[in-house]
User: What shape does this take?
Amino acid sequence: MARYTGPTFKKSRRFGFSILENGKEFAKGKQRTYAPGQHGQARKKHSDYALHLTEKQKVKFMYGMSEKQFARTFHRAAKMKGVTGDNFLQTLESRLDNIVYRMGFASTRRQARQIVNHNHVLLNGKKANIPSMIVSPGDEVEVKSKFQKNVQLKEAAESRPAAEWTTVKNFKGKYERLPEIRELNKNVNPSLIVEYYSK
Assistant: This one.
């Protein structure tokens, strides 16, 4: 299945969860908070499988990944030492497009992915145009000088502070450490995703 490129707000309503992580989807007066469709407001009891699937889907859409990519990343994390759910989220956070987003070079992950795809980013001084590349702690990510004058880049940098596990100065950032789970989205439960893939 290909990566989802449709309306983000619709998916946010479906899951009752801010895919953009900024709450804009549910801003007062802008969007209906119940699920889309004729029966969106109907109450429904979900099975355990439905809960596991929903958790997996909302994280997949949040990071903008295809089903195959998402599953591959999970199985990679499952082979690491430590807690699988924590390893999984830390691996997702270490993707190049996500690091560009966390450093405040883009207002959304989609925008970060496009910046990487269009060759506007350097990783440790070398060309890096693959959004799924895994960045290691200590690596440096830099926006090319030609792109630093971009209006959207400047707006994103001014409106979004860099994540605590990164340091940024003059469109050049360093991935200092892996984020702790408590620093990530508190509405995400990685244990449900582990249970989904364990079946």
Observations:
- Residues 48-63 form the longest helix (16 residues).
